[in-house]
Design brief:
Layout (H helix, E strand, L loop, with lengths): L6 E6 L4 H15 L3 E9 L7 H18 L3 E8 L8 H15 L3 E5 L6 H13 L10 E5 L20 E4 L4 H10 L13 H14 L5 E9 L2
C-alpha cells in the first residue's frame, strides 16, 4: 500500500504524537527516499506551559525527527490543549494550505476516538483539508493510534480503534524507539504507557497480529486505487 509513495504527511496534535503513532512508518518511508513532512498543530504557551520546557521540547523534537529522517516540519503554533478555542475555519484553512502546498500522496491523522479533544478536532480539520477536489489530494488517508489517548475513551460510547491496515516496521522499530527516547521530557518509566518498553510491546503485539515481528496499526479512512 505504501510502495512507491514519494510524498507523505503526518499531522500531529502535539510533539511526540507523530512518533508514538507512526514513527516506524515515517522511518520506513524515509528510508525509501520518500519526502515525509510532519505538521505539529499546537505549541504549549504560558501560563499553562512553561516557556523553557517548550523550548526543550522543540530541541527534543528536532533530534527525534533527524533520527527518523523527517524531511520537513511545520509548526502551526495554535495553543496546546485549547484547539476548541480556535475558530474551526481558521484551523481548516491552515491545514488546507499545507496539504495544498505539499501535495502528499498519503496523509496520517490522529484518530477521532482519542480522549484528547485536540486530537478529535484535528482529525476533523484534517479531513476537511484532504477532501477530494479537482486538484491533487491525498489518495490514502490513515488514522493512527496514540498510546494514552486512543485507548482511554469510554468503550461503546465513542469510536473504538479497530485497525484495518498494518505496516511492517520490523526493520525500523529501533529507529522509532530511539526517536521516542529523544523526547526525554515525555518518556516515563515502565509500566507507564509512555515508556519505550510499552511502545515496543505495542509494536510487537500489532506485528504478531499479522505474523510480523513489529508493526504499526491504522484505521483506513480513505483509499483511492
Amino acid at each position: 500500500m505504501l510502495e512507491g509513495i514519494e510524498r507523505a504527511m503526518v499531522i500531529a496534535p502535539h510533539p511526540d504524537d507523530e512518533v508514538l503513532g507512526c514513527g516506524g512508518t515515517i522511518a520506513r518511508l524515509a528510508a525509501t527516499g520518500c519526502r515525509v513532512t510532519v505538521v505539529l498543530a499546537t505549541r504549549g504557551k504560558p501560563p499553562r506551559f512553561n516557556a523553557a520546557a517548550v523550548g526543550a521540547l522543540e530541541s527534543e523534537m528536532t533530534a527525534a525527527h533527524a533520527r527518523l529522517g523527517v524531511s520537513r516540519r511545520h509548526w502551526l503554533d495554535f495553543p496546546a490543549a485549547e484547539l476548541d478555542r480556535v475558530p474551526h475555519a481558521v484551523l481548516n484553512d491552515a491545514l488546507h494550505d499545507l496539504v495544498a502546498a505539499e501535495r502528499p500522496e498519503v496523509l496520517f491523522v490522529p484518530f477521532i476516538g482519542d480522549i484528547h479533544l485536540d486530537h478529535q478536532i484535528l482529525f476533523q480539520s484534517s479531513l476537511v483539508a484532504a477532501r477530494p477536489s479537482p486538484d491533487a489530494f491525498p489518495r490514502l488517508v490513515l488514522a493512527y493510534e496514540t498510546l494514552s489517548e486512543t485507548n482511554w475513551y469510554a468503550p461503546y460510547v465513542t469510536p473504538g480503534f479497530l485497525p484495518t491496515v498494518f505496516v511492517d516496521i520490523a526493520d525500523h522499530l529501533t529507529a522509532k524507539l530511539e526517536a521516542f527516547g529523544c523526547y526525554a521530557s515525555q518518556v516515563k518509566p515502565f509500566p507507564h504507557e509512555r515508556s519505550t518498553e510499552t511502545l515496543g510491546a505495542l509494536a510487537k503485539l500489532r506485528g504478531a497480529t499479522v505474523c510480523k515481528a513489529a508493526a504499526e496499526a491504522f484505521v483506513l479512512v480513505r483509499a483511492l486505487a
